[in-house]
Design goal:
- The complex is a heterodimer.
- Helices cover 67% and strands 0% of the residues of chain A.
- Chain A is built from 12 helices and no strands.
- Chain A is globular and about 55 Å long.
- Chain A is an all-alpha fold.
- Chain A has one domain.
- Chain B is globular and about 60 Å long.
- Chain B has one domain.
- Chain B is an all-alpha fold.
- Chain B starts with a helix and ends in a 6-residue tail after the last helix.
- Classes of the chains: A mainly alpha, B mainly alpha.
- At the A-B interface, helix 2 and helix 9 of A face helix 2 and helix 8 of B.
C-alpha cells in the first residue's frame, strides 16, 4: 500500500485520538497493572525454582519487556485493524474495502493506529532495558543490531499469525470472535519456550512460530544466542509473511459479499 | 407466583438461551479454548519446575489434576454478566428488559445455565478422553466427593454471578465498570488459585486470600474435587462460601435498587 495513503489514514486517526487524552492515562495505568501482575506471577514461579527453562529471573523479565512491546504493536495497529475482519466478512462491510483502489490486505491491516497503545512499546523496551541493567549486561553493537532485526521480525511473525488466523473468517463466517484464537496462541509467548514440556517446544518453534516473537529477540539481547540468529529470524519472518499472503489470497477468493 | 409457573418460565428462558447459543457454537468453542489456555500454560510451567521431584508436596501428576479440575470448575462458575450489563446500561438496552414482567437477572441466570451446560459438557468429554491415555489426570470414583464438589460449584457459580452482575451495575455510575472487573480478574489470578494452588503462594499472600472471597470462587471447589481439601477444611470452605455469597447478594441488592433509581438512558 502506498505510504501516502497510510500517512493520511494515520493522521486522521491521530486527530481523532487526541480528543480522548484520558485514554492515554487509562492505557498507561493498564500497562503498569499488567506488568505488575506479570512480575508477581514470575515471583511465584521463582519462589519455587531458581531457573525457568534454564533462564534466571531477570532474563525472563527481559522477555516480558519484549512481550509487552509487541503487545503495544498488536493493540495499536493489528487488533483495531485486521482484528475487525471477522465482523466485516459476516456483515459484508468488507465490500467497501474491496471497492477501494488499494491493496485490500494492506488497507485492512494498517488502516488504524491507536496511538496511545504505542506507550506499551516504550514501557516494554524500558522494562527490558532495566532487566538487562540488573543482569549487569551491556549488549554489544552486534547484539543490539541482532535484537532490532529479531524484534522487527517478531512483529512481522505476529502480523502473519493475525492474517492467517483472521483469514479463517472466510471459511467460518459465523465466528465473530476469531481474534480470541490469536490471544490463546500468544498466551504461550509469555515465557521462554524452554520452560515448556518438549512437545510444546517443538510446536512453538516450528508449527505455531511464537518462539520467534519473544524468546528469540530476548535471547539476542541477553547473549543467550549468537547475533547471527537475527538473520535466521528475518528469514523466518519472510517465510511467514509469504505464507500469510498466500493464505489471504486463497481466502479472499471465497468471499462473495453480503452487504446491502 | 407458584412454583410451577417459575419452572415453566425458567424452562422457556433456558431453552431460548440454548437455541441462541446453538447458532454461535463455533464462537463458543473459541471462548472455551481461550478459557483453558491460561491454566494450560500454568500447568506447562509448573510441570517443568516440578521435574521429577515435588514443589511443596505437588508432583507433576498433582499439578495436572489440579489444573484440569480448575479448567472445569472455572468454566462452570465463570460469569460474563458485567460485560453484558455494562453494554445494556450504556446503550439503553436495559430499558425493554426493565419493562418486562420479569427481573433481568432471571434471563442472565438462564443464559448462564444454558452456556455452562454446553461448555462444561465439552470439557468433561475432553477430560474423559484425555484420561484414557494420560493416567495422571484420572480422578478416583468417589461419589460423595463429587456430590460435595457439585454443591461447592453451585455456590461458587452463584457468588461469581453476583460479583459480575454487581460490578456490571456500576455502569450506572461510571463508564469504567468493565475495567473494575478486569482489576478483579487480575487480583483473582493469584488469590483464587488460577496461577497456582494456594499452598504454593507466599504465606502472607495465602493469608490475605483466606480473608477474602477469592478462594471460595475457585480454589475451594477445585481442591474438593482433587481431594486436597479434607476434614475441617471442607466445613470451613462451605461456611466461607455461604458467608461471602450472602455479602455479595446484599451488595447486589443495594447496587440494583440505588442504580435503577438514578437510571435515565434513552433508546434501546
Amino acid at each position: 500500500m502506498k505510504i501516502r495513503i497510510l500517512a493520511a489514514l494515520w493522521r486522521l486517526n491521530l486527530a481523532e485520538e487526541l480528543q480522548y487524552r484520558a485514554n492515554f492515562v487509562a492505557s498507561v495505568l493498564g500497562t503498569f497493572f499488567w506488568i505488575g501482575t506479570a512480575l508477581l506471577t514470575l515471583a511465584v514461579f521463582f519462589s519455587h525454582t531458581t531457573r525457568l527453562g534454564g533462564w534466571d529471573y531477570w532474563e525472563v523479565v527481559v522477555l516480558l519487556g519484549v512481550f509487552n512491546a509487541l503487545t503495544g504493536v498488536i493493540e495499536a495497529v493489528l487488533r483495531p485493524g485486521i482484528g475487525r475482519l471477522a465482523g466485516e466478512v459476516r456483515s459484508g462491510g468488507l465490500d467497501l474495502v474491496l471497492a477501494k483502489p488499494v491493496d485490500a490486505q494492506g488497507f485492512v491491516s494498517f488502516r488504524r493506529l491507536d496511538i496511545w497503545r504505542l506507550a506499551d512499546v516504550v514501557l516494554g523496551l524500558a522494562l527490558a532495558g532495566y532487566a538487562l541493567h540488573r543482569l549487569g549486561r551491556v549488549p554489544s553493537l552486534a547484539q543490539l543490531a541482532a535484537f532490532v532485526l529479531a524484534l522487527a521480525s517478531a512483529a512481522v511473525v505476529v502480523y502473519a499469525l493475525w492474517v492467517v488466523l483472521m483469514s479463517l473468517a472466510f471459511w467460518f463466517v459465523s465466528v465473530e470472535n476469531l481474534s480470541v484464537l490469536f490471544d490463546a496462541v500468544y498466551e504461550g509467548a509469555r515465557y521462554p519456550v524452554s520452560a515448556y514440556p518438549e512437545a510444546l517446544r517443538f510446536l512453538f518453534v516450528y508449527l505455531i512460530p511464537i518462539a520467534w516473537t519473544t524468546t528469540i529477540p530476548a535471547s539476542t539481547l541477553t547473549g543467550r544466542l549468537r547475533p547471527e540468529i537475527g538473520l535466521v529470524a528475518a528469514l523466518v519472518a519472510g517465510a511467514a509473511l509469504a505464507l500469510a499472503r498466500l493464505v489471504w489470497r486463497t481466502a479472499l477468493k471465497r468471499y462473495t459479499g453480503a452487504s446491502g | 407466583m407458584s412454583r410451577a409457573a417459575w419452572l415453566r418460565r425458567y424452562a422457556a428462558l433456558i431453552r431460548n438461551a440454548w437455541l441462541v447459543d446453538l447458532q454461535y457454537r463455533a464462537s463458543i468453542v473459541l471462548w472455551l479454548l481461550w478459557g483453558v489456555t491460561e491454566p494450560a500454560v500454568a500447568l506447562g510451567i509448573w510441570w517443568t519446575i516440578a521435574g521429577e521431584g515435588q514443589v511443596a508436596g505437588y508432583a507433576r501428576a498433582d499439578f495436572a489434576r489440579y489444573f484440569f479440575a480448575l479448567m472445569l470448575v472455572n468454566q462452570l462458575t465463570i460469569a460474563w454478566d458485567s460485560w453484558y450489563l455494562d453494554g445494556w446500561i450504556r446503550e439503553g438496552e436495559l430499558n425493554f428488559r426493565l419493562a418486562r414482567p420479569l427481573h433481568p437477572a432471571h434471563e442472565a441466570v438462564a443464559e448462564n445455565i444454558a452456556y455452562k451446560a454446553r461448555t462444561a459438557g465439552m470439557i468433561l468429554v475432553v477430560w474423559l478422553v484425555v484420561s484414557l491415555v494420560w493416567p495422571a489426570v484420572r480422578l478416583p470414583l468417589a461419589p460423595a466427593r463429587w456430590a460435595l464438589t457439585a454443591a461447592a460449584v453451585l455456590l461458587a457459580g452463584a457468588m461469581r454471578f453476583f460479583i459480575s452482575f454487581t460490578t456490571g451495575l456500576l455502569a450506572f455510575w461510571t463508564t469504567r465498570a468493565t475495567a473494575i472487573m478486569e482489576l478483579h480478574a487480575g487480583v483473582s489470578l493469584f488469590l483464587s488459585g488460577r496461577l497456582a494452588p494456594l499452598a504454593l503462594l507466599p504465606p502472607a499472600v495465602a493469608g490475605a486470600a483466606a480473608l477474602s472471597w477469592f478462594p471460595y470462587m475457585l480454589a475451594f471447589p477445585v481442591e474438593l474435587l482433587t481431594g486436597a481439601a479434607q476434614g475441617t477444611a471442607v466445613v470451613k470452605g462451605f461456611a466461607g462460601q455461604l458467608v461471602w455469597l450472602g455479602v455479595w447478594i446484599a451488595a447486589y441488592h443495594v447496587t440494583w435498587t440505588r442504580g435503577v433509581r438514578r437510571y435515565g438512558a434513552v433508546g434501546g
